[in-house]
Amino acid sequence: MIHDKALQIAVIGGDLRQAHLANKLAQDGFAVSALCLEKDVYLGDEVQLGENAKKVIGTSDVIILPLPVTTDKVTVNAPFSEHKISVREVLSSAKKGALILGGMIDIDMQTKGEQLGLTLIDYLEREELAVLNAVPTSEGAVAIAMRERSSTIFGSTCMITGYGRISKVLARMLLAMGARVIVAARKHSDLAWAKINGCVAIPISKIKDYTSQVDILFNTVPAMILDEEILSSLSHDCLVIDLASKPGGVDFEMAKNLQIKTIWALSLPGKVAPISAGEMIKDTVLNILAERGITIGPN
Amino acid sequence: MIHDKALQIAVIGGDLRQAHLANKLAQDGFAVSALCLEKDVYLGDEVQLGENAKKVIGTSDVIILPLPVTTDKVTVNAPFSEHKISVREVLSSAKKGALILGGMIDIDMQTKGEQLGLTLIDYLEREELAVLNAVPTSEGAVAIAMRERSSTIFGSTCMITGYGRISKVLARMLLAMGARVIVAARKHSDLAWAKINGCVAIPISKIKDYTSQVDILFNTVPAMILDEEILSSLSHDCLVIDLASKPGGVDFEMAKNLQIKTIWALSLPGKVAPISAGEMIKDTVLNILAERGITIGPN
Amino acid sequence: MIHDKALQIAVIGGDLRQAHLANKLAQDGFAVSALCLEKDVYLGDEVQLGENAKKVIGTSDVIILPLPVTTDKVTVNAPFSEHKISVREVLSSAKKGALILGGMIDIDMQTKGEQLGLTLIDYLEREELAVLNAVPTSEGAVAIAMRERSSTIFGSTCMITGYGRISKVLARMLLAMGARVIVAARKHSDLAWAKINGCVAIPISKIKDYTSQVDILFNTVPAMILDEEILSSLSHDCLVIDLASKPGGVDFEMAKNLQIKTIWALSLPGKVAPISAGEMIKDTVLNILAERGITIGPN
Amino acid sequence: MIHDKALQIAVIGGDLRQAHLANKLAQDGFAVSALCLEKDVYLGDEVQLGENAKKVIGTSDVIILPLPVTTDKVTVNAPFSEHKISVREVLSSAKKGALILGGMIDIDMQTKGEQLGLTLIDYLEREELAVLNAVPTSEGAVAIAMRERSSTIFGSTCMITGYGRISKVLARMLLAMGARVIVAARKHSDLAWAKINGCVAIPISKIKDYTSQVDILFNTVPAMILDEEILSSLSHDCLVIDLASKPGGVDFEMAKNLQIKTIWALSLPGKVAPISAGEMIKDTVLNILAERGITIGPN
Questions:
Q1: Residue B153's closest chain A neighbor by CA?
Q2: How many CB pairs under 8 A join A and D?
Q3: Residue A109: how many other CB atoms lie within 10 Å
Q4: What are phi and psi of C149, to 5 degrees?
Q5: Does D193 lie at the interface with A, CB-CB under 8 angstroms?
Q6: Residue A269 pLDDT > 90, yes or no?
Q7: Per-domain residue ranges for chain C?
Q8: Strands B157-161 and B119-122, how do they pair?
Q9: Where does the Dipicolinate synthase subunit A N-terminal domain start and stop, copy by copy (chains A, B, C, D) (predicted)?
Q10: Which residues contact C70 (CB under 8 A, 6 or more apart)?
Q11: Is the minimum CB–CB distance between C198 and chain A shorter than 8 Å?
Q12: Between D135, D149, D274, which is nearest C150 by CB?
């Protein structure tokens, strides 16, 4: 294990999460420079504000790009900056052997980077980050449910489709708040877990037998599960919150026709808890570094 | 026990809570008339819309006034109505022996009513309603904390002053969401309970030893506890949520000077969960009626 | 607050709890002597073994007697000793102004002590000790249920009568293990709490409507609640655990006739967790001393 | 889906679990015959006692063998019977196309059965049964900890090695009882889950930094983790409970030398909760049947 205070890290672009990540890495003792993060974000004194982007990038051992790396396939995603820097420029300015970390690195970028002798790692594909992200996602979902309804979570009947990471954390939270939680899932082992964890566990094929009792329906399955048949069976004041990434799992058009209030809540971690989300990315980055023998401090 | 379907109940004024109460009592089989509740609220078909207020009041066995009964000491509090009816009129129109229920009945009204041969009961003084109200209050407090901060409740350090009804429910909720909860209370037995329930329990005199670690401080004690000394010891991004009724427990002026974000959250149940709050009032009203031998249905 | 390392404490008689108490007080920095505790118990090096009982008692500022102080109304309860010392002798040997602490001090002893210029305090009457004792009692009750049955607590239906200290802790434990918990209580506010805490809450008058579903019935009410009528309504393999102090709340004779397995579990803390029980008495003793201005160490 | 009341099921040998399974399947409406289960077990009236083993086996559509199927590789494991029947005999008497279910079917039996045109399924390899078994295992582990120690689980520090099925359930139970739980695991994602679920999560390589604080150490990893170095670092009154199947994860010889109390708790479900364990096998059997289109009743 290398204890390497001289390790140079560049943090480029991104939002509050990325700024918090920069601050935290600097507090941990790394030499951190920030680029494209100069507007409306708080950066601590320990973080160097990079003046010369090319030089900063060229001298960094590790370059951390935001989540997502880019929204236009050309420039680094940098909503808190007036500067623009292209992904291509970052790659070509990086020194050979540098480690490039980012969220949602596409295949083109991956190929290009490797041709230049760089190592690219998509931290969003790390299982531990996906697990940790379930926490702000669940809190955000609960906050939406609280905001949109005139009743307490306590005493409500919630249904959750799927029993993956988000469902597990969300179910636990709702149960602890006094809701009755029905989990609809396919696999027998998932249903066994849901039952052990205090939920009513039903096969996904039986959803319709339970929908009339449901006050809040959280979907986590990215497939069209909540179709006309299911939506029509809901009570008129049921709230539907779709947490599944695109294409989602709700027939939104149909829900609108049926006057079922439906909210498609995407990318909650960055929206409801950017500080915590930044902290989680930082922990994941540290894990990636530690696996490569790079570590700081006594832990 | 009297099973009395013919019992006449008048529900007068109030907000969504009172409307929900009317609906629920009617669904339970009581004969319910509503007065001063005609605007922007949903009343079910089972509820009679009282046309002639005097007649409705004069023929009712039980009259349910809102919470609070009045905000101007003269008229019944009726934000969802264009009609006005005075408290005095209600009392003088009621038939002898009628039961008048309301929230926050003052001493004048009590005396006046009793002189007229009426029985007046303040449902807000019922212990079970105070207990039940702790649920929407706690959910509302958590919702505020989620909305105002950029971090998750999970992983945060929360301090709660006092260990009464609200604190107990709130602490349980925060713990279940993964917060560390410090309870500051006076009585040894309260501290013993807080410890058993999973909190860090500290005497109220030691608050200052812990404040620097606190991310969210919930006050439930209606006395000036959070004074300059305590407020100055908080970290700059600590959020203070005061749940104590007037005069509150925070030196708000000082908090403002110190740039400590402070929210005084009063009357949360009616704001965040009027349906549930109405349900709770209904349960309490049913308890009051049952104690007087009036009951409906198989339970 | 007096920081008084020279304070002399005598710990007399008792069982493992009392021995643990002596050890802990000595570790906290008090000068502790033990009497009538020489057999089969572990006393640390910091505890003085009193040779001359009269001298030890006569020079002590605080004298801690066991729980209960006596079982025969004459001698101090000392199962781990071959020596006998009478309560009367302890009182008459104590120096004027000494503080005598004990569990279950009777009125005669209280009077006699006060006549001799002593201050007697029954620590068992301290609310915080009663609260803390609910933990080992509940764990002991769960352990009995596990040992006596061939099914898991998970998935079982438990009924608890009463909703005092033990019930609150026990209910929480059972719920967390996945049981369905029915609480039968009298007061509306207790029922409100039970409901908030995740239990099915029923008035005590309705017990019989639920008994046929019950797998384990825990009684905490010290009055004959489980009479022939209730016992006859239980399923034949229901387990009854009576946690109420004498006279208990079960018609044991009738239960035997009906072949209902019934266990009267008394004084669980000292039996199932003497170390923890001793720790709790110690904490309570420290609270008593602190209220009198006697304290040791930084807390 | 076939609703087939005429389906013939033979339940052969085994212990209380198998007897409970027979009763439950009969209550569900299947035609159930029991063999080798005539001593000291309760079989309901709905279960046929097979007189002629050969005939019962030859006419059954489904044959359920115990867990484990055999302990001597020759006869069916039947501790509650004076009859002996060989596994070979069962297979050769079964009718072609019959479904044979059993726990721990070895490769020889599998091959032999298939040659005879039978379908053999080992229900112990079903993920849902493994998940459900974690509940009685965890309750049994907690019961051992309660029985062997003089302190409460509340307030104790527990360490669990590994974060698989048993650990997840056990950790939740201990946390709910008020223990501090340290989980030592290898994978970053397991550590993330442990942290989310309220545990202190540490890499397995850091165990030794925490062992001195541990009161109860539960091992779930079937590899020699608790070697001399770790065992020597434990406090002298730490209790070690090994829940890992053979070869276990503790150097028992060394633990004995170091006078560390160590309990190797194997096969807890059948021991501590045979009724529940039988219920779980039944649920799994029903899943297996349902997947083959065989079902009974409205669910």
A1: A139
A2: 46
A3: 22
A4: -115, 160
A5: yes
A6: yes
A7: 2-125+273-295, 134-266
A8: unpaired
A9: 8-123
A10: C76, C77, C87
A11: yes
A12: D274
Instruction: Please identify every stretch of chain D with a pLDDT value under 50, giving residue numbers as ranges.
Output: 1-3, 298-299
Q: Per DSSP, what are the bridge partners of residue D62?
A: D9, D99
Residue C129 near residue C280, CB atoms below 8 Å: yes
Q: Contact C132/B192, CB-based, under 8 Å?
A: yes
Whether B3 has a pLDDT exceeding 80, the answer reads no
**Architecture of the domain spanning C2-125+273-295:** 3-Layer(aba) Sandwich (3.40)
Q: Is C152 on the interface with A (CB under 8 A)?
A: no
CATH number of C134-266: 3.40.50.720
Within 8 A by CB and 6+ apart from C108, the residues are none
Give dist(CA C240, CA C141) in Å, integer.
11
pLDDT for res D298: 45
Residues of C in contact with A154 (CB under 8 A): 196
Q: How far apart, in whole angstroms, are the C-alpha atoms of residue C113 and residue C92?
A: 8
ipTM of the complex: 0.92
Q: Looking at the predicted structure, is the pLDDT value of residue C4 above 60?
A: no
Check for a shared fold between D2-125+273-295 and D134-266. Answer: yes
Residue A1 binned pLDDT confidence (cut-offs 50, 70, 90): very low
The CATH number of domain B129-266 is 3.40.50.720: yes
Using the Cβ of D176 and the Cβ atoms of chain A, whether some distance falls under 8 Å is answered with no
What does the alpha-carbon distance between residue C213 and residue D224 come to, in Å, rounded to a whole number? Answer: 45
* C189: closest CA of chain B, how far (Å): 4
Residue A124 vs residues A162, A163, D215: alpha-carbon distances, Å: 21, 20, 38
Which pLDDT tens digit goes with each residue over C193-240? 999 999 999 999 999 999 999 999 999 999 999 999 999 999 999 999
Give the number of other CB atoms < 10 A from CB of residue D38: 15
Tens of pLDDT, residues B254-296: 999 999 999 999 989 999 999 999 999 999 999 999 999 887 6
Taking one residue from A and the other from C, the number of pairs with CB-CB distance under 8 angstroms is: 6
Q: Which amino acid is at A77?
A: N
